[in-house]
Design goal:
The structure holds 2 protein chains of 2 kinds. Chain A has a domain at 93-163. In chain A, 41% of the residues lie in helices and 24% in strands. Chain A has helices at residues 47-54, 77-84, 102-113, 118-131, 148-159, 178-195, 206-212, 230-234, 239-246, 248-263; strands at residues 7-18, 21-32, 36-40, 62-67, 70-71, 87-90, 166-170, 198-202, 215-220, 223-228. Chain B is mainly α. Chain B has 2 domains: 5-104, 2-Layer Sandwich (Transcription Regulator spoIIAA); 145-379, no CATH class. Chain B has helices at 33-43, 63-73, 75-84, 90-104, 117-154, 162-172, 177-200, 208-246, 249-255, 260-298, 303-311, 316-342, 347-379; strands at 5-7, 11-14, 21-24, 26-28, 52-54, 58-61. The chains are: A alpha/beta, B mainly alpha. Chain A binds chain B through residues 98-99, 103, 110, 114-117, 120, 124, 126-131, 133, 136-137, 139-140, 142-144, 160, 162-163, 190-191, 193-196, and chain B through 29-31, 33-34, 37, 62-64, 67, 70, 91, 94-95, 97-99, 102-103, 106-112, 344-348.
């Protein structure tokens, strides 16, 4: 990232606790404009909780979260809705509305927020569908008749409906076969370049980290242990980080990404 | 062409020059989508393949704007333009390219045809009648399955799910006591008021006691409780089993070599078989108590007098009322569980089947009660 990069999301001194269980303690994190930031961490280190804190679904116990320089939780409902339109969220299981068709799912924010008529919204939704790489036959299907990969793509199309500046992706490639997962990684990369997106990516997928992430932040010991490019992070002297990046899967992903770069 | 120059807010077409020149300007973003879509629709027929397109004055651009440009120029041409126009930034080129490439091979998805009005109504009615028979058959089949599983498990105490049974009795029985008691108390009071008003015309207000007692022992005690249970418990059973079905938990039970009927249905059916008669008995007491309070306050019938009159009523009326409780309990529980198993995937389906379970069980309860009333009357019980 260049020196002029500005932080779109600033998390300062964040503490999250559920009863006696403290998930985050004095956590700091910056997300820069235009980057793909990968968040990794063991199960239960609060990756999803961090995502929910940033998008305003979870009120932090202490500390501040600023998105576009605004603290979401202190805004009036109208202003908050305006800010929320500037980001899109892809939930882990897709969270498509099961009573609406795929096309209606994507058209919903367009009708509600952009004030388009139903026909306009649906024709624009078709474009988003095409961008997300869904076949046109999926348009009038209901979410329960889609495959896992198609659900993720449809959910991404909905997250991108309002041309957001940031997209939050919660384990986008989990549960996809390796070919679909690789295609999804490429899709995120293409869309980032084309739409100038900032991507906040929670993932377990090492291949995703190596192929598309600009920076990686490791959640451990209730805070961001280290954030930086992959080589910096992988070199961190920490047992978990070492096991993660230098274990058999980490090495395989590194080799695969090295081969990929050679071939290009 | 008559006019050499066409102009909308974002598009200027100069047909005097050769080739024609199209200038695209302004913000092509989502907030302007409707206006731009109209502009595009008016301008598109005036363009031909030779028109030169200039994007230098283009301000903001997002995917919706790019989609409109693709609509105006065609996806192929948009890709060519992205590659050839030097005034575009690389990010913008990438955007036009992605949208063009995505739309190039894409055809408009075919909308499922909306069905015609009358034919649709007839088809709906036909479908409903056909499904009615299927539903009855499914219910009878399910009842058979439950009874069979019950009989098999009866002689194998190791397979009795005592914990689950007790927890279900707590949820369906104990937790329902306050609402059942309160409701029947109030209905008992209302019936007594009614009796007091109507019977006063005949100077027979003392028979209010008999009215309340007969009504609650024979009909209202069991009917009100059963209807409450249909709303409270049948829906809960459907939602519980339905969300387990949607979450593939029922399939997991099967693949573990266990029987979902034995694990999920029997404890619920047996729990309601235990709870409903007890609740019915409480409902009768509470209704009669409600009547007693009104008799005391409005008709000056003392509790001693009230009880004396009650003692004159034969016990068979209590038994008639209580005998219906297990039948209603069984049907309510079975309908609730069966609807749960019919759930498929979506949240909407859970809602539909929960509604259906409540409607069906209330219907069955009232229907059976009416049949039973005639039967008992003919038998002189």
């Amino acid at each position: 990232m260049s020196a002029q990069a500005s932080a779109l999301i600033e998390v300062r001194d964040l503490t999250n606790a559920f009863g006696a269980q403290v998930v985050h303690e004095h956590l700091d994190l910056d997300v820069m404009r235009g980057e793909i930031l990968g968040i990794v961490g063991g199960s239960g280190t609060g990756k999803s909780v961090l995502l929910r804190s940033i998008v305003g679904l979870q009120r932090p116990t202490a500390g501040s979260v600023k998105v576009f320089g605004e603290n979401l939780l202190s805004l009036s409902p109208e202003k908050r809705s305006q800010v929320e339109r500037r980001f899109g969220v892809l939930f882990q299981s897709g969270a498509l509305f099961s009573s609406l068709t795929v096309l209606e799912n994507i058209a919903l924010p367009l009708i509600e927020h952009a004030g388009l008529s139903r026909d306009e919204a649906e024709s624009l939704a078709v474009v988003k569908l095409a961008l997300a790489g869904l076949p046109e036959t999926a348009a009038y299907k209901y979410p329960d008749s889609l495959s896992g990969g198609m659900v993720k793509r449809a959910a991404l199309a909905r997250a991108l409906a309002l041309d957001p500046e940031i997209v939050f992706l919660d384990e986008p490639t989990a549960g996809l076969d390796p070919i679909s997962a690789a295609a999804f990684d490429q899709l995120i990369l293409t869309l980032r370049d084309a739409l100038g997106l900032t991507v906040f990516l929670v993932t377990h997928d090492l291949d995703t980290l190596y192929t598309i992430c600009d920076r990686v932040a490791v959640l451990s010991q209730k805070r961001v242990l280290v954030a930086g490019d992959l080589t910096t992070v992988a070199a961190t002297p920490d047992a978990w980080v070492h096991d993660y990046f230098h274990g058999p899967r980490g090495r395989a992903a590194l080799q695969a990404s090295a081969r990929l770069t050679e071939n290009n | 062409m008559s006019k050499p120059f066409y102009m909308t807010s974002a598009l200027q077409l100069d047909t005097a020059a050769s080739p024609a020149q199209l200038r695209i300007s302004g913000d092509w973003t989502l907030p302007h989508y409707s206006q731009l879509a109209r502009d595009v629709a008016t301008m598109r027929p005036r363009l031909d393949g030779a028109t030169a397109v200039h994007l230098a004055d283009l301000q903001a651009l997002d995917t919706s704007g790019a989609a409109l440009l693709a609509d105006l120029l065609g996806a192929e041409r948009l890709i060519d333009l992205a590659a050839s126009d030097a005034s575009l930034t690389p990010a913008r080129q990438a955007l036009l390219n992605s949208v063009g490439a995505a739309l190039r091979t894409y055809c408009q998805p075919e909308k499922p045809k909306p069905r015609a009005g009358l034919a649709d109504v007839l088809a709906h009615i036909g479908g409903f009648v056909a499904s009615l028979w299927e539903r009855v058959a499914a219910l009878l089949g399910f009842i058979g399955l439950v009874l069979e599983t019950l009989l098999r498990g009866l002689f194998a105490p190791r397979r009795w799910r005592v914990t689950s049974l007790v927890s279900n009795i707590e949820q369906t029985g104990l937790d329902a006591v306050p609402i059942v008691v309160l409701l029947t108390f109030m209905v008992g009071a209302v019936v007594a008021f009614l009796g007091a008003t109507v019977l006063a015309n005949f100077g027979a207000t003392i028979y209010t006691v008999n009215l309340v007692a007969f009504a609650f022992l024979r009909e209202f005690g069991v009917l009100l409780t059963a209807i409450l249970m249909a709303g409270r418990t049948a829906s809960a059973f459907t939602a519980q089993i339905g969300s387990m079905k949607a979450n593939e938990e029922v399939d997991a039970i099967r693949t573990l070599g266990l029987n979902p009927i034995e694990l999920l249905v029997l404890p619920r059916v047996l729990a309601l078989l235990v709870s409903l008669p007890i609740l019915t008995f409480l409902a009768m007491l509470s209704g009669i108590l409600g009547g007693a309070v009104v008799c005391l306050l409005v008709l000056n019938i003392s509790p001693t007098m009230y009880l004396t009159i009650l003692q004159g009523i034969e016990v068979q009326h209590l038994l008639v009322g209580l005998s219906k409780a297990p039948v209603f309990a069984f049907l309510i529980a079975v309908i609730g569980c069966l609807e749960g198993f019919k759930v498929s995937g979506s949240a909407q389906s859970v809602g539909e089947h929960t509604t259906s379970a409540v409607v069906q069980s209330i219907f069955v309860v009232i229907l059976l009660d009416a049949v039973a009333a005639m039967f008992f009357m003919e038998m002189g019980w």
